[in-house]
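Troubleshooting log. The previous structure file for this entry was overwritten by mistake, so regenerating from the original sequence record. Sequence copied from the archived sheet and checked twice against the printout by T.R.
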Amino acid sequence: MTDTPQDLQSRLLQAFGAVSALLEQENALLKTGRWQDVETLLPRKRTVLETLRKLLPLEQTRPLTAEQRSAGVSTELEAAARQFNMLVRANEELLQSAIAAQGTLIQLVLDDAAQEQRTGYGASGGYTVDSHAGALALRSDV
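Regenerated output below.
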């Protein structure tokens, strides 16, 4: 049984809608820095993207029938595809920003830990910076 062009477009609209809704939710979480919550969306994201992927090759790999060519793509489907593409671009930018922010946070923590290792108390009881901290020290009696 083959899908009519209308059936396929309806299924594509549903798939684009599901992916777009999930991307909107993920983008909102990324904007607010709730990165762990984004991780919980991954199983659902895989599922809806797989559904969309399965539908898309049907039109791309098979030659269109005369009925499909005359039906064309609905303006609603074109709008859904544009919305999807816009959300994907925004999602990519937000993910890159989140990765950069986490990298910066990790670097700050590492820099702070390194600074704490170099700072200690000197002979006079005040803070001193040990410029040799982290260097290999050898005992002379060994």
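The first strand starts at residue 119 and ends at 121. Archived copy saved in two places this time.
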